[in-house]
Amino acid sequence: MQTAWFSKPVAVSVGVTGSIRHLSNTQQAIELLTTHWRDAGSPKHQSALRACRRATSGDVAAEIAREALVEAAREAHILVE
């Protein structure tokens, strides 16, 4: 497995205090998606997790995973735009 880097970090608000995290690659995204996700199990969450895992194995481009992550974060109301 390889770390797939995004062209631009994805900023999300996490935790009770809403601290901002800038996710720069698929490993960071997978960690957040599997441990600290507000709407875990939603279709967009599952799609983002699947896309990030596929990007780490080289099956899809990092930008596809990034877009899926952005959509999931938007759905979960944690995307910082």
Please characterize this protein's 3D structure.
The protein has 81 residues and is of the alpha+beta class. It has one domain. It is built from three helices and two strands. A two-stranded antiparallel ribbon has the order 1-2. A hairpin with a 4-residue loop joins strand 1 and strand 2 (19-25). The mean pLDDT is 95.
Features:
single chain; 81 residues; alpha+beta; two-stranded antiparallel sheet; 3 helices; DUF982
Write a brief caption for the model:
Pfam families: DUF982. It is built from 3 helices and 2 strands, in the order E-E-H-H-H.
Quick one: how many beta strands? Answer: 2
Count of all domains: 1
Beta-strand residue percentage: 15-25%
- The largest beta-sheet arranges its strands as 1-2
Outline the biggest β-sheet: 2 strands, antiparallel
| Estimated helix fraction | 40-55%
Order of helices and strands: EEHHH
By secondary-structure content and strand pairing, the structural class works out as alpha+beta
Mean pLDDT: 95
Spans where pLDDT lies below 50 across 5 or more residues: none
Radius of gyration: 11 Å
Task: For the record, give the distance between the C-alpha atoms at the N and C termini, rounded to a whole number.
Answer: 30 Å
Number of helices: 3
Shape: globular
